[in-house]
Amino acid sequence: KERQLCRSFYSILGFYPHKTDLYRQAVMHRSLHAKASGGRRYNNERLEFLGDAVLGAVVGDIVYNAFKYKGEGFLTSARSKVVKRETLGRVAHDMGLTKLIRSDVTGKSHNSYMAGNAFEAVIGAVYLDRGYDHCVWLIRERVLGQYIDLMKLASEEQNFKSRLLEWCQKYKVEAEFELVQERKEEETDSPIFVSRILISGIECSTAQGYSKKESHQKASKEALKVLRKDEALRNKVLGI
User: Fold this and answer.
1) Which residue did the predictor score with more confidence, 153 or 60?
2) Which of 198, 194, 191 is CA-nearest to residue 181?
3) What share of the chain is helix, strand, coil (3-state, %, to 5)?
4) Which of 45, 47, 199, 208 could, after both became Cys, cross-link 124 (CB 3.0–4.6 A)?
């Protein structure tokens, strides 16, 4: 089992782990309620915390050097697009990491939130096992080199909330963002936020996400689509 785990991580990372227990812990979801010796909880949450910090620093450095003439706002946006849960979840799936995640979740495939967390935990494991330089190599050569087109991703317009607010300002109507529900996903214990958007007091969309920001973005994207396609609703919102 030890050799099999090493081979699996070699195919994902491009190098063999030294401290295999770190990587085993990195793919242990808290839903297993596993405990190590002494009764300490054995899951990937602490490694996720560490990996998040390391990932932010490495991606920040890469983005800073890749876009030499861009301002702080662009750099911050580019970094956030790389490190957001949706992107990390997709990378984890494409790399084959999701196949190694151990959890008590049944009835559905691993969601992007869980997969993204595991990816960050693996970065934390690499940092403790091999050091910062290996993290830089992994993110630069494997992640950005094979699974993410940084130039394309950085230039994509993904701030749908800003676009919706600009549309509302143009037509002199008011948008309201309401948190409809906040709960825990039953199978994964992940937070779920459900938001709806009212424009001129008229409901235009509802969406859920793993953060308020994500639910706002998804609802805004849906509202823009509806306003573009549904002429009757658009006229109602505009008071025509």
Assistant:
1) 60
2) 194
3) 65, 15, 25
4) 47
| Cα distances (Å, whole numbers) of residue 159 to 55, 146, 162, 182, 216 | 22, 25, 6, 22, 10
Number of Cβ within 10 Å of residue 102's Cβ equals 15
- In the chain the first and final C-alpha atoms are separated, in Å, by 68
* Order of strands, sheet of 175-184, starting from the edge strand that comes earlier in the sequence: 175-184, 191-199, 202-209
Query: Containing H/E element for 176?
Result: strand 175-184
Q: Which residues contact 36 (CB under 8 A, 6 or more apart)?
A: 42
**Which of 158 and 92 is assigned the larger pLDDT?**
92
pLDDT of residue 203: 93
pLDDT (0 to 100) of residue 188 = 63
Tell whether pTM > 0.85. no
62-105 per-position pLDDT tens digit: 999 999 988 888 888 889 889 988 889 999 999 999 899 888 76
3-class DSSP state for residue 150? helix
In terms of C-beta density within 10 A (0-12 exposed, 13-18 middle, 19 or more buried), how is residue 55 classed? Answer: buried
Residue 52 bears catalytic tag = yes
Contacts of 78 (CB under 8 A, 6+ apart): 63, 67, 70, 150, 153, 154
Active site residue 189: no
- Residue, of 168 and 37, whose pLDDT is higher: 168
Catalytic residue (one of 48, 52, 129, 222): 52
At residue 71, the 3 state secondary structure works out as coil
Pick the most confident of 36-45, 106-115, 143-152, 193-202.
Answer: 193-202
Distances (CA, A) of 114 to 88, 144, 228: 10, 21, 34
